[in-house]
Amino acid sequence: MSEYEVVVVIGAGSIGQAIARRVSAGKHVLLADLRRENANAAATVLQDAGFDTTTTAVDVSSREQVHALVEQAANLGDITRVVHAAGVSPSQAPPEAILAVDLYGTAIVLEEFGQVIATGGAGVVIASQSGHRLPALTPEEDTALATTPADELLALPMLQPDQVTDTLHAYQVAKRANALRVKAEAVRWADRGARVNTISPGIIITPLARDELTGPRGEGYRRMLELSPAGRAGTPDEVATVAALLLGPDGAFVTGSDILMDGGVTSSYFYGPLRPT
User: Fold this and answer.
1) Is 97 part of any domain?
2) What percent of the chain has pLDDT over 70?
3) Fewer CB in a 10 Å sphere around the end CB: N or C, the chain?
């Protein structure tokens, strides 16, 4: 084992930062984001709070860039924690970009870091409640999303433009795929003595969520919160609490799992007042 333990955080937004603060004391944090300035801004906050931090830029839809990130992290020390919190939402990009970043990019991250994660290490992927609202897929489709080599994923018939025609569908498929992918990757990560899980948050108050709540689709989001059992949105710190469990020794028996934490929105969608009519 190296002298240094490295926590890799991909996606320097509110959730990635909150998780970093919970799990990185005494370790080196490598913060990666599509925009280096975002990573630098987050690093300043973490450094002021006493965390040893390095930053870099990465486009997760590029295997070459993800591989370079892996090499940079490995040069810093033993990679013991991987937090994948990068992605784009339905309001941010067209369907093909959502699939490239959220689905293909996640598969690359899992493949690449699964080759170097330290014994006793753990990873967590931030998925979404949206993956739970996608209608059931066939067993063959589940298997394809879970096990198709990453570089062949976007060629699957079910992911072609005539099958994925809008951004919400693309996002739901991508997030369902994240959970399926992690379930399969947990078997491979176990060969290195490591674990990996997903968290599927609901509406979490971040700058992006605040924009959504006050934007063109804000009424629908506010209704979603009002008619959920919890009656409110979540916070990045609440996601970080679950992530800390999954990444730490108390979560040692949990791998290949998906934790839905949405204040009951999905429950209300299937069995309550949010149920489509």
Assistant:
1) yes
2) 99
3) C
- Distance separating alpha carbons of residues 113 and 70, to the nearest angstrom: 7
Task: Give the H or E element holding residue 84.
Answer: strand 78-84
Name the maximum alpha-carbon separation found in the chain: 58
Q: What mean pLDDT, rounded, does the chain reach?
A: 96
Active site residue 269: no
DSSP code of 100? I
Question: Rounded to 10 degrees, what is the CA torsion of 186, 4, 237, 117?
Answer: -10
CATH number at residue 157: 3.40.50.720
Asked whether residue 105 is domain-assigned, the answer is: yes
pLDDT of residue 229: 97
Cα 128 to Cα 155, 162, 171, 179, 202, distances in angstroms = 23, 24, 9, 9, 6
Name the token pair of 128: 């979404």
| 27 flagged as catalytic | no
CA 271 to chain centre: 27
**pLDDT at residue 59 tops 80:** yes
Write down the pLDDT at residue 1. Answer: 47
Type and span of the H or E element at 267? helix 265-271
Structure tokens at 252: 């040692």
**pLDDT reported for residue 129:** 96
- Locate 27 and state its tokens: 């370790």
In total, how many domains does the chain have?
A: 1
In a domain, 277, yes or no: no
Q: Which of 27, 104, 175, 183 is catalytic?
A: 175
DSSP 124-167: EEE--THHHHSPPPPHHHHHHHHHS-HHHHTTSGGGSTTT--SH
The boundaries of the domain holding residue 265 are 5-271
Residue 2 has a pLDDT of: 56
CA dist 27 and 183 (Å) reads 27
The active-site residue, picked from 171, 183, 269, 271, is 171
In a domain, 276, yes or no: no
